[in-house]
Amino acid sequence: KTKTNWRSWSKAAGLPPEFQDPYAPGALSPENQEKVADYQFKLYYDKYDGDWRKVAIAWYGGEGGVRKVERGEGNKPVYHPGVDKAFPSIANYGDDVIARMNKIRQGK
C-alpha cells in the first residue's frame, strides 16, 4: 500500500518532488514515512470527526472501506495477489486498532 499511495500522499504532505517517487533513493526513509503518515492520519481524523475506528479503517482499506463498513459489507477477509494467507477484514482491523488503543489507555 505504501508504494501505491506514495506519490499522491507524499505530494499532499509537502515532500519535495524528488521524494514523491517511491523508488527514488531516500524517498521511503523513516522520516519521510512519518511525515506522510502524520499528514494522512490528521486528514482522516479531521474528515471522520475524531472517530479513530474510521481513521484506522481508512488507513487500512481506503475511504471506500469506511463506506463498506458503514453498509455492513466490510467483514470479509482481505486477500492480496501473490499472498497465500488472508488478512483481517477491514471491520476487524478497525476493531483491533481500537482494542489496542484501549489497552494502552488502561496501561495494560
Q: What would the keywords be for this entry?
A:
108 residues; mainly alpha; 59% helix
Provide a descriptive summary of the structure in words.
- This protein has 108 residues and is mainly α.
- The chain contains four helices and no strands.
- Helix 2 packs across helix 3 and helix 3 runs antiparallel to helix 4.
- The longest helix has 19 residues.
- The two termini are 30 Å apart.
Outline of the structure:
The chain is mainly α. Helix content is 59%, strand content 0%.
Q: Strands, helices and their partners?
A:
Layout: H1 2-12, H2 30-47, H3 52-70, H4 90-105
Helix pairs in contact: 1-2, 2-3, 3-4
Give the low-confidence spans. none
**How do the helices and strands follow one another from N- to C-terminus?**
HHHH
Q: Mind describing the biggest β-sheet?
A: none
In angstroms, what separates the terminal alpha carbons? 30 Å
Shape: globular
Query: What is the residue-mean pLDDT, rounded to a whole number?
Result: 93
Total number of β-strand segments? 0
Rg from Cα = 15 Å
Query: Helical amount among residues, as a percent range?
Result: 55-70%
User: Total helix count?
Assistant: 4
